[in-house]
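Incident review: delayed structure delivery

Summary: a single-chain prediction request sat in the queue longer than the usual turnaround. Root cause was a stuck worker, restarted by the on-call engineer. No data loss occurred. The affected request and its eventual output are reproduced below so the record is complete for anyone auditing the incident later.

Affected input:
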Amino acid sequence: MTDARHGLTITEVRLTAVLVADPPLLNTQGVHQPYTPRLIVEVTTEGGVTGLGETYGDTGYLALAQQLAGALIGRSVTDLNGLPELAAEVCGDPRGATGAGAVDAGGLRGVRTAGKLRLSVLSGFEVACLDAWGRATGLPVHALLGGKVRDRVEFSAYLFYRWAGHPGGRGEPDDWGAALDPAGIVAQARRFAGTYGFTSFKLKGGVFPPDEEIAAVRALAAAFPGRPLRLDPNGAWSVPTSCRVADELADVLEYLEDPTSGTAGMAEVAAALRGARPGGSGRAGALGRAALPLATNMCVTTFDEIAGAFARDAVQIVLADHHYWGGLRNTRELAAVCRTFGVGLSMHSNTHLGISLAAMTQVAATVPHLGHACDSHYPWQTEDVLTERIGFHDGRVDVGDAPGLGITLDRDRLAVLHRRWLADDGGLRDRDDAAAMRHADPGWITPATPRW
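Output delivered after worker restart:
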């Protein structure tokens, strides 16, 4: 379908792979690499407007994006319903796809089915099309999604155990210092609160034995009494360990995220938590929500995974990620499904730039029951491709009414980050936290799960 009358027909698609500085943030698989790959998508219409999108830049995603880019020429930026079919047609079964039971080892992104890989790629194109459409019509993206229901979107401080610097002086230096114990985590949280105004805090766990991470959460609770706290070990714990930690921290956690791997394990933990409530029933409301809610961005990352997880009450909060789910409109569909089944909603974040944060903010502004502050790595990122960084005020991002995403691309900065990608020998073009850890510990292998 074309839309030449309104100048919305796509005449050019530009893809720019970049490597962006990333701090030495630790997780259960290892440590972030000094630079992480992202892909910037630009869609230009015959009316002369250009829309921006962003997604993963690993080589597998880039190969799919190159196939899809050429197929978009001559189509309208309004033809969004046709994107999934087009991607399936031109991309086929992506290299590196796995079965539905496998979990991606590169960045803890959940399954790597062919359909999900395509959705992760076309999400960047969908956002770019919405941005171009909004710029052409003078409307913000949130208006194209039905209109905003809030003027500000709340985000949570994303706390990490981390080293002071990457091994061997690799990467870009920063002034955060190391955070390897409860005192370091509390100091990090205080800086986030003071600089950005965050009032809720999420700790990336699965790095140290559970008792050490319990101590860190307890220290946060003492330093920030009454503030929402979350803990995410990325599936590193067994079911018994998950239950023990949940029991010990139930009085201070807002939710526990992916304590164990897979829907079956999460369902066991949730059932145990329901049974642990006073009186033994553990049922709260018609669907019997668990005493301490369990959240996920690992076992429910595709529409195919929803039915099994919701039927077993394995998760009580889904952390949406518009990259996984295929864009902003699919994120709204996910939100509607969650609302129907009484499941809470927030937003997941992987390392990203300002284009993705702008897209997250636009769709979050339109979701009525977004009941928890969203995650964002953005404060950790010292580099961007925008002329002006997106700001957090009182832990929130204002939802603007400028056309499209309301952002401007800095082409000089984009060129710098692309030259870094061109200069790389390929070692950083795919995220691999275990490989990054081997620069400090040559014998390191990705730990088996459960780790504890």
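Verification: Confidence is low (pLDDT under 50) at residues 100-107, 277-289.
Action items: add queue-age alerting; document worker restart procedure.
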